[in-house]
Amino acid sequence: MLFFQLISTLLYTAESTNGKDDCVKRFTNPKDKTSMVCVCNTQQCHTFPRVKSLSGDSAYFYETTASGLRFEKSEIKNNTKNEWDKMGFRLKVITTERFQEIIGFGGAMTDAAAINIDRLDNEELEEILLHSYFGDQGIEYNVIRIPIASCDFSTREYSYLNTPGDFSLNSFHLAEEDQWKIKFIRRAQKMARLPIKNFGSPWSAPAWMKTTGHMKGGGKLLEGEKYSKTYAEYFVRFIEDYTAQGIPIWGVTVQNEPSLGEDEKYGFQAMFFPPKDQSDFVANHLGPTIAKSKVANRTLIMIHDDFRGNLPEWADITLANPKTDDFVSGIAVHWYGDRDADPMKLTQTKEKHPRKFILGTEACTGPGIDLGSFSRGERYAEDIIEDLQHDVSGWVDWNLALDLQGGPNWVSNFVDSPIIVNHTAKEFYLQPMFYAMGHFSKFIKPGAKRVSIKMQKVKDVQGIAFINQDGTVAVVVQNKGDFGVKISIEDERGKQYRVTLQQRSINTLVYK
Ligand SMILES: *[C@@H]1O[C@H](CO)[C@@H](O)[C@H](O)[C@H]1NC(C)=O
Ligand SMILES: *[C@@H]1O[C@H](CO)[C@@H](O)[C@H](O)[C@H]1NC(C)=O
Ligand SMILES: *[C@@H]1O[C@H](CO)[C@@H](O)[C@H](O)[C@H]1NC(C)=O
Fold it and tell me: How much distance in Å is there from the Cα of 89 to the middle of ligand 1?
């Protein structure tokens, strides 16, 4: 604690006059002038002070643009210039029409992420990286996903129960990798202003419990009471052991991407868990086992954790059993394939299961990394807006940090991440995807509600609005087009804020 206070005093209370809190721009692709990262090292890293008290008619407008602005802040007044009305577009926010409640935004503490943070090998720089995501002068994530044992973003294949036939879980133990994950999650929890919601997801049951005998490559959980019972206890042991280390587990998903495991030759750890089987497992084993654990009994269960294309059918089948329906709190969705699947599938799912929340639990761009790519940041913003417009309550990114190759990943399935670590240089890079996440996570807090907007159709412009519990309103507007757009953001109380959405920009307006 003392250490952290010292660091935060040294680094984050300094005035920005010397530039150490500003984005240190590095252009990363001579063929694409929009490719740029902000470089962070122990000397400097871009920080974002929290919004100070907003007075009656002023607002703050934050811009991230292809032309190189990053969270550029300006103060806007309720504005009355008449000429604007003729040339600008209008976006009307109706704060009295409210929809789904926000759970939050975050990323995954995979083995790869923890290894990359650890390899910085400098406690001060690790702290700066964690602060970028979780600190009050970072983008203030409040959700962390934790793989339960290994996934592809590990350096090896392992489970927590490696002794065949150990139905009493005598040999259950967390792995060496968990000690890194736990260390960094604890530090993230300490610096976060709001409680972090941690949730776990398994990629596969232990090899000996599967039809294939391997964690890699699909297959199903073996049939029979003792396998299902042991596997439910496996979840609870994970929850208990993390909780004992100071990391409460807010939720679990039953299985990461359960549809993939149908392919027995699948390229990494996977398990086929079709909806009817998942329903039985939750009703008869996972639900009751969690409910009767003194430590795990508050942990929420989420089903699906897979592509929206399988909705609403997979949720319908899983929740058809009223016992399962009672145990399940949420429906988790991944972004892969979103462009080929109608977002109305999310709305239909919410209409059919109104008591369940829908949470985005994984997203990434790829293949590999494309350092500084602005279009990858734009894709994040587009998808977040689309999901949240269709009843989704939050959006959780994949790996919190990757190396220059987009790994480590033991099957070479390299992808991109909002933070890329360069270990040899002892620096890390804030990519446009980081800013895209921040335009939401910084301003739309847990408990916020989406509110209605009425907007003239403007090509390439999309928006979304929320009201926080403290009454602040956050409007995120993205302009994907190659021209600036003047827009008047108004609400039912007579506020009017005129702003320009620069070409290819992501913008957040906050006011009270
Ligand atoms: C904002 O300006 C408009 C236009 O002049 C005015 O009608 C409205 O009352 C103002 N709203 C506030 C909250 O000051
Ligand atoms: C969970 O268990 C604790 C300890 O036995 C108990 O006090 C609490 O009421 C339980 N909570 C729920 C939600 O069942
Ligand atoms: C990483 O750091 C090394 C210096 O240690 C440098 O040569 C290299 O260009 C850096 N990589 C990138 C992608 O910036």
Answer: 17
Residue 160 near residue 174, CB atoms below 8 Å: yes
Angle in degrees, CA 430, 435, 440, rounded to 5: 145
Instruction: Give the pLDDT confidence of 123-151 residue by residue, as tens digits.
Output: 999 999 999 999 999 999 999 999 999 99
Ligand 2 site, CB within 6 A: 294, 297-298
**Residues assigned a catalytic role:** 257, 362
Q: Is residue 483 part of a domain?
A: no
Residue 510 lies inside a defined structural domain of this protein: no
Ligand 1 contact via 80 beta carbon (within 6 Å): yes
pLDDT > 60? residue 14: no
- Cβ(338)–Cβ(346) below 8 Å: no
Write down the mean pLDDT value for the chain: 94
The ligand placed nearest to the CA atom of residue 420 is: 3
Which of the 8 DSSP states describes residue 305?
E
User: Which of 293, 297, 300, 326 maximizes ligand 2 atoms within 8 Å of its Cβ, making it the mutation to test the pocket?
Assistant: 297
Q: Could you list the residue range(s) of the whole structural domain that residue 172 is in?
A: 105-441
- 63: its two tokens: 């811009």
Centre of ligand 2 from the C-alpha of residue 299, in Å: 11
pLDDT band with cut points at 50, 70 and 90 for residue 86: low
**pLDDT reported for residue 78:** 76
With vertex at residue 287, the alpha carbon angle to CA 283 and CA 290, rounded to the nearest 5 degrees, is 160
404 CB under 6 A from ligand 3?
yes
Ligand nearest to the CA of 296: 2
Q: pLDDT > 90: what percent of the chain?
A: 88
In CATH, what number is assigned to the domain containing residue 398? 3.20.20.80
Query: What is the model's pTM?
Result: 0.94
